[in-house]
Each structure stands twice: as C-alpha cells, then as structure tokens.
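Minutes, project huddle
Topic: does the predicted pose make sense with alpha-D-glucopyranose bound?
PN asked that the exact inputs be recorded in the minutes so nobody has to dig through chat later. Recorded below.
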Amino acid sequence: MTKSGSAIKVLFVTTELAPFSKVGGLGDVAGSLPKALLQADVDVRVVTPAWPGVLERVAASGVKTSMAKSNVYAAYDWRIHSANVIKADVKGVTTYFLDAEDYSGDMYPHQLNFWTASPFAVFCMQALELKNAIDWEPDIYHCHDWTSAFLPCALAWHRHYRQVGGRSVMTLHNVAYQGIFEPSPFLEASGLEPWSFSQSTMEFYGQVNLLKGGIVSATAVTTVSPTYANEIQTYESTRELSGILSQQRGKLRGILNGLDTKFWNSEKDKQLPARFTSKDFKGKVTCRKALLQKAGFDQETQDPIIVCVSRLAEQKGFDMVMNGIDEIVKMGAKIMILGSGQDWIENGLNAAVAKYPNSVKFFRGYDEPLSHLLYAGGDMFLMPSVFEPCGLSQMISMRYGTVPVVREVGGLRDTVFDVDDPNGRKNGFTFQTCDTEGMLWALRRAVERYKTNPDQWREIMVEGMSEDFTWDKSAELYKQMYEEMLQ
Ligand code: ADP
Ligand code: GLC
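Predicted holo structure (tokens), as shared on screen:
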C-alpha cells in the first residue's frame, strides 16, 4: 500500500514477455511474476516492444486488444520517435505493446553500437512517457537487464526526465550482458547530462555501460537468487563490475525466481501426449516413449535419458558436456539436447551425434512444445552451468519428475539439493568444481542410482514434484521492497 492506502502502482519495463517474445528466462519471469504481484495486491502493468511477430502472436492467442487514446513520443537522436500503444489484457495483467519502426529489426542485436542500442533507449523513454497516453501513472518503474537499464539512467541524468523524477528498480537477470558500446554519438543524442559519463556513473573503460548506469542510478537493485546476489560482488564472477556491485550492496537484494506453476504442470499440460502426477507415473512412461520415438531411438530402452533444454551459450557449460560425451555414453545413458545458439557448441553437438548416433540426439532450434516433451519424457535434467543467476529449467524439470543434475552455483545452489547430503531436501545431484570430471562425478552417481535403486529414484522424483516453486513467497518480498521504496 502507498501512504494514502491505495495499491502501489508498478510498471514492468521488459523487452521479453512470454509467450509472445521469449528468448530465455527473462521472458518467463516477465510473463508470470506480474500475475503473482496482482494477487499480492500490487497494481502492476507491463510495457514491452511489439517486436516482429509479437502482435500476430497476441492476436492468435485470442487476447483482446484496443488502442490507447494517444501514441507515445520520445525525443532521441534529434527526432521524435512515436509508437502506437496497443493495450491488452493478458490473463488479467494490463499490458501495453509499443508498436513502432524502432522495433522492426531483430529483437537482440549481434553487435552493439549506437544504432543497435538506440531502440532500447527509445523504448525506455517511451515507457516514461506512457503515463501521458493512458490514465495511470506508476509509482515505481521496474526494469530488467541492460535492455531497460537506460530508464533509471534517464531518471537520474536526462536533461528533462531528471526534473520529472521517479523511483526505479533494476533487476539483474544476467550480469554477463551489460550493454557496452562507444560513447559517441550516444551521449549527445540521448539527452543525458555530460556528467552521466564518469567513473561513478555509466562510463566503463572509455565505453558506455548501460547496466552499470542502471545499477548506480536505480533506487533499488535486485537479482534473481540470493546466492547470485553474493556471487556478483566478487571479481571471479563479474570482473570489473564487481567493484560497483559491492559498493552498491546496500540497495541490492536477491529474490528467488518462481515459475508459472499453472503453465508448467504435469497434471494439466496439453502439450504432452499424456499427463501424470507424483502418485501415478503411467503418463510419464508414455511421454518417455514419445520422446524416444521423436529422437529415433528404441522406445523400449531402459537406459536413463539425460535431457538438456537450453540456450547454447558459454554460460551453460556445454564444453563440459562435449568433453564428457565418451564417458556419458560409456555409462549406458542416452543424452538429448534441445537448443540453439553459438556455432561452436552447435558444431560440437553435431560431431557428438555423428560419433554416437544411437546415444546422442541434438534437436537444433527453439521449440516450445518439444521442450515440454523433453522435460516430461526425460529421466535426468543436466545443467552444468558455469554461472547461473537463477535458472528456471531445473525447477521446470522437477515439476515433471525429471531429476536435476546441476553445478552448485547461483540459483541452482538455492534450488537443487544433493540426495547424498545428509541435511538436504534430496531433490537432485550436484557438483562443485567447474570441470568435466566434476560433472561426470555427479552424473555417474545419478545414473548408478537410477539403475540400481528404483525406489530411491522414485522418492527423489516425488520430492522434486512437491517443491513449492510458485511465485507466492517472492512476490511478497518484491511487494515489501516496493513499500520500503515509497516510505
Ligand atoms: P536462461 O534464461 O539463462 O536462458 P533459464 O533456465 O532461466 O535460462 O530459462 C530458460 C527458459 O527458456 C526455460 O523456460 C527453457 O525451457 C526455455 N528454453 C531455452 N532454450 C529453449 C529451446 N531451444 N526451446 C524451447 N525453450 C527453450
Ligand atoms: C537469465 C539467467 C537465468 C535466469 C533468468 C530469469 O537469463 O541466465 O539464470 O533464470 O534470467 O531471471
């Protein structure tokens, strides 16, 4: 509540929104946390760019839309950038899609420079202008990652917006992406005051660093798990940015992500060939067979199926998977990977398939329905991340009785607990050292347990399925933070 007793008004400013524009977990969070905040009596709304295809997906989903009373306008690079504001009720969450020329290119640029970074600055300014196009003004702007980090910077340092003022939250979903590019002509074109570009603001080794600017200028900073909140303050984790993060730790907190547990639900999931509960796994057996068939493997095999659903990026530890592939096959396991991303990983996985066509399957691409089949049809979910701010995949896999095998890092450490640890919740297998041997040590234990102790395996599956991965607790923590910000 605000001091006057009305609900706190929060605008989520996000460049991804599941199910309309999702690249990774940020899309899931933006698509599910607002619903939980509404339940907690926060008056939250969402603004997001209408990237190519988004409005078509909105229409196809049957969501009703209407036009706001006017466009939004932002002054940037010596011209006015206008966007149509399309209002939609997405499962109870009022959402504004900004439709403009600025958002007609690829969602995320391969190379960052003034021109490719500009849509993100324009988006933030249009988000600040939104209150003029609708009858609603936020108390707090809640921004996510470098792609909306320009907003707190504008509130602090922009010639016009710093006069207007406002409070903001900067949530760090992944500090590895910071929005770094040449300062010229950005500094002149953005309308920021010259002093916004200094060592204590957004300057970073001669470059602009939008995320650093967002961290310094936001009223509060959060990240997506308690462990990651500690890790990012160390040089080992975030290198040159660690100084700023530890300097700002007074306003930094780690709030664990949740899931849309209505969507990721083995009992109701319509994208699966069969559904199941923790009391009756017949449906999981059907999913397992369907997955084996899809991969072109023998449907009756008793070998454990290790699955991965992931962006193929260095962060996710696929070098360990590729280096360990001979040993994984020797263990008598099948491994199936769904993902797309960096060429060297895709090539390495293709080479593994060529070597072991009966044990390794690589589904290249982004495929939501297939991801459900992997989560449900697999026996183990492998996630040997080098770093992991939170990670949703390990939680999703547990919802489907697929046992996670993960490295003890970031949010993985906060959600997966080793079955051989006497004091844990016993829902998976974990390892510490970031190398192939460490990963194989955990996998060997998992495969051996699967093959020799079906009763214990079932207990581990049931434990994972009974975990509370709803947003309820975390939504309360966000609400508390919003309340503190308005005091
Ligand atoms: P990150 O955000 O770092 O990519 P998370 O584990 O937080 O990792 O979230 C990843 C989300 O993206 C999950 O919902 C996962 O199922 C989904 N995902 C990743 N790769 C694919 C893919 N190739 N096809 C379908 N869904 C994918
Ligand atoms: C990022 C992180 C991931 C996290 C997600 C949602 O993409 O890599 O660990 O779960 O954001 O917060």
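Observations noted during the meeting:
- The radius of gyration is 23 Å.
- Residues 24-25, 28, 309-311, 338-340, 366-368, 371, 390-393, 396 surround adenosine-5'-diphosphate (ligand 1) (CB under 6 Å).
No decisions taken; revisit at the next huddle.
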